[in-house]
Design goal:
By secondary structure, the protein is mainly beta. It has a single domain (7-466, 479-750), classed as Maltoporin, Chain A (Beta Barrel), CATH 2.40.170.20. It is built from 11 helices and 40 strands. The strands form 7 sheets. The protein has a 22-stranded antiparallel beta barrel. The longest helix has 14 residues, at 451-464. The protein is globular. The two termini are 44 Å apart.
């Protein structure tokens, strides 16, 4: 059954829309946040869109088998749809990438694997602070916004336990089960928190009760087990000084017996139809995500007349992908299986750094300033599997060849930045904000052997009847220096209503390893093919970029962001609305197998609206509405083309109603993404413009919680009307990779039940 919302209903939902997160934000205008300024500041003094989601709201939305991105899709107006996969690659805010922080520490690496929101457990979240729009206050990467996940601390004296267990059922089978155990306490000046979670996910089923297929491009979450352990230890020297150490170990590993249906001799590779997975997967190196982190924090509220916050941290993450069938037979126009490469890559990043922040209030002036440093070392390696074995088993049996090779260059990135942020209350009505950040980035790109030569040199050697040698690509050192500023004003109409406007700038160093992955040296002996077989060589240039690292486009992306809005509350209504516009002179393009940084303009604009109306003490209705649109200017065409849906979210509406009593709460909510058929992309290699169409969908969720004499029981039904649909990411991937093998229908109706007890 396909549920559609009539235009009038959508308009009503937009006019009266908000989730409880927005209600929380608006009704408590003076709630203190830290993310927007890196020091304590009230929401009412910030000249931008800041949202606070507390633990109760996360708890209400969370269900076994889901990840943080699924929750934020419902709660953050400008945020794009969840991928429903391991990756967060296409989930943007206001058409730009998002910087994810945990307790103020960046989780972003230069090699953007984009799995941050898959490694954060809802059980450990105290609150989430979200800043929409470009920001440089935490360094490069926040060109679309910041999501700062603040983890729980011990609150109560003595020893306190909490146990939570839950299951998820789809197609009459348990698809996920979760168990969380936490221990927290405080003894004198010492406090501690230990939280451990285990979640096992089995097969997920679509609305037709078919098993959802794995995604060999980015991985899906079915048939995976997650283990997460968080420990936080704190000591209060006195009321003003505190030291805290935290550590986390996260593991997410796949163990599946299902693989994509590649067909005999990979005959299904070019299919545009979604196929059921095939049982019999034999893969000893299944995908995983691992993250280890440790952090030290010291705060002093009376440090030479300032508030001091300093952090030192180290983290490492490792991510392995599913083997991907790089089948170049169609692209090269040859039938030989020698140009089919079964590649599996593993990406590793090790990051260490520190932050030093000072803040001070002087009458009506609030100041914060500081410095931070980050050292990021990344590498990615690939391994091949025997092509004949895979071709003759429909891609189910993977026999390693023992070959290991560089999958792009090793990149070391050092970032040093200093910032200054101020807020001045001119009078009771006007507050002015101004800030600066200067950042210096040094990127050391190592010499490397091109993956293109690793794959194609043996093929070309065989064609040429001679042995060709590899030509390493020479590395280079890149330096980026940028000074960014922000300014804004807040005008208080009264204690409940405010107007605000601001201008901010964001900055991002390029993902050099990914951009250079398909680069081969200009002196590569692959070019001998130009004389031996000109047609084949022209086809080869569609998948190999012959250049040098120095000549490759590796400039940083600077984003300018503007917004103006209103937030306020009336007797029974909380609401806000924001208009935004952002632009940059560069953009990332995904052209088949090649990712490029293009010297072309990109602009994104839109509107976000939210409201919540309290009918009485028990009933409220609301939702959010967001509209995002963007274009990029292609010089070769001499015109603007609309951005694809993986960059700008289709029009989104979330509408809900809640009924709450002292001991139970019921919430019914609908999430609607509209059709999007405006997306266009241009390939300079083929000279063609490709259209992209995204079918919209509407899902309805029902959630309820009940306070028992001992503990809390929570139940839910997701996709209540069993809507059959594909996520926006899944539809985009099928068109971008030119195969539905990477696609799948989304989960159909599923039931969840969980119980939590504190003792």
């Amino acid at each position: 059954m396909r549920v559609k919302l009539a235009p009038l209903a959508l308009a009503v939902a937009a006019a009266s829309a908000s989730v409880s997160a927005i209600a929380e934000q608006v009704t408590q205008l003076d709630k203190v946040v830290v993310t927007a300024t890196r020091s304590e500041a009230s929401v009412s003094s910030i000249s931008g869109t800041v949202q606070v989601i507390d633990a109760d709201q996360v708890k209400e939305q969370s269900q076994p088998g889901q990840k943080l991105a699924d929750i934020l899709e419902k709660l953050v107006p400008g945020m794009g749809p969840s991928t429903q996969a391991v990756t967060d690659h296409t989930q943007t805010i206001r058409g730009r990438k998002v910087l994810v922080l945990i307790d103020g520490i960046s989780q972003q690496d230069n090699r953007q694997v984009s799995r941050q929101m898959n490694t954060i457990r809802p059980e450990n979240i105290e609150r989430i602070e979200i800043v929409s729009g470009a920001s440089a206050i935490y360094g490069g990467g926040a060109i679309g916004g910041i999501i700062n996940v603040i983890t729980k601390n011990a609150k109560n004296e003595g020893v306190n336990f909490a146990t939570e267990a839950g299951i998820r059922v789809g197609n009459s089978k348990v698809s996920a089960s979760t168990l969380n155990q936490s221990i927290e306490g405080r003894t004198g000046d010492f406090d501690y928190l230990l939280s451990a979670t285990y979640e096992s996910r089995g097969s997920f089923y679509d609305a037709d009760r078919n098993i959802m297929s794995p995604d060999p491009a980015q991985n899906r979450r079915m048939d995976t087990d997650s283990k997460d352990a968080l420990i936080k230890l704190g000591y209060d020297f006195d009321e003003q000084r505190r030291f805290e150490v935290s550590g986390q170990v996260f593991r997410d590993e796949m163990d599946s017996e299902y693989g994509p249906d590649y067909g005999e001799l990979f005959s299904n590779i070019a299919t545009q139809e979604i196929l059921e997975p095939v049982k019999g997967l034999d893969l000893s190196t299944q995908p995983f995500t691992k993250r280890n982190s440790v952090g030290f924090t010291y705060t002093d509220d009376s440090f030479f007349g300032h508030r001091l916050s300093t952090q030192a941290y180290y983290r490492e993450r490792e991510a392995r992908f599913f083997p991907f069938p790089n089948d170049f037979r169609r692209t090269l126009g040859v039938a030989s299986p020698a140009v089919v490469f079964l590649n599996q890559s593993t990406s590793l990043a090790k990051v260490k750094g520190f932050k030093f922040d000072l803040s001070k209030d002087i009458n009506n002036l609030s100041l914060s300033y500081g410095v931070d440093y980050k050292d990021d070392k990344g590498e990615q390696r690939g391994q091949r599997f025997d092509t004949t074995t895979a071709l003759t088993t429909k891609g189910l049996v993977y026999k390693p060849t023992g070959d290991s090779y560089e999958y792009g260059p090793d990149v070391s990135t050092d970032t040093l930045g200093g910032f200054f942020q101020s807020s001045y209350m001119l009078n009771e009505a006007f507050t002015l904000n101004f800030g600066l950040r200067h950042e210096r980035i040094e990127q050391d790109i190592a010499d490397y052997n091109s993956v293109s030569e690793t794959w194609f040199l043996p093929v070309v050697s065989q064609m040429a009847g001679t042995s060709l040698s590899s030509t390493p690509v020479a590395g280079v050192k890149k330096k980026y220096n940028e000074t960014l500023f922000n300014t804004g004003v807040v005008f208080s109409l009264n204690d409940q209503n405010q107007l605000f406007a601001n201008y901010t700038e964001g900055f991002e160093a390029p993902d050099a390893a990914r951009i250079l992955r398909n680069v081969a040296s200009n002196e590569s002996q692959l070019k001998l093919l130009a004389n031996a077989n000109p047609t084949l060589f022209e086809n080869l240039k569609k998948i190999v970029n012959f250049t040098s690292v120095e000549d490759a486009q590796l400039d940083a992306i600077k984003t300018q962001s503007y917004e103006m809005g209103w937030r306020g509350q009336f007797e029974n209504l909380n609401s806000n609305i924001t208009l935004f516009y952002n632009s940059s002179d560069k953009t990332i393009a995904f052209d088949g197998n090649i990712v490029s940084l293009l010297d072309q303009k990109k602009k994104v604009y839109g509107l976000e609206a939210a409201a919540e109306y309290f009918v009485n003490d028990s009933i409220s209705v609301g939702g959010v509405y967001s509209f995002t649109e963007g274009r990029s200017y292609y010089k070769d065409l001499g015109k603007w083309l609309d951005l694809e849906a993986q960059e700008v979210s289709p029009q989104k509406i979330v509408a809900y109603t809640t009924f709450a009593q002292d001991d139970y709460t019921v919430r019914l909510q609908a999430t609607h993404f509209a059709d999007y058929n405006k997306g266009r992309s241009y390939s300079s290699r083929t000279g063609t413009v490709t259209e992209q169409e995204i079918d919209g969908y509407t899902t309805v969720d029902l959630m309820a919680s009940y306070e028992l004499p001992v503990g809390t029981l929570k139940a839910g039904v997701s996709n209540l009307f069993n809507e059959k649909y594909q996520s926006v990411y899944s539809q985009w991937a099928a068109q971008a990779y030119k195969t539905a093998i990477v696609s799948s229908n989304s989960e159909g109706r599923a039931y969840s039940l969980s119980y939590r007890v504190e003792y």
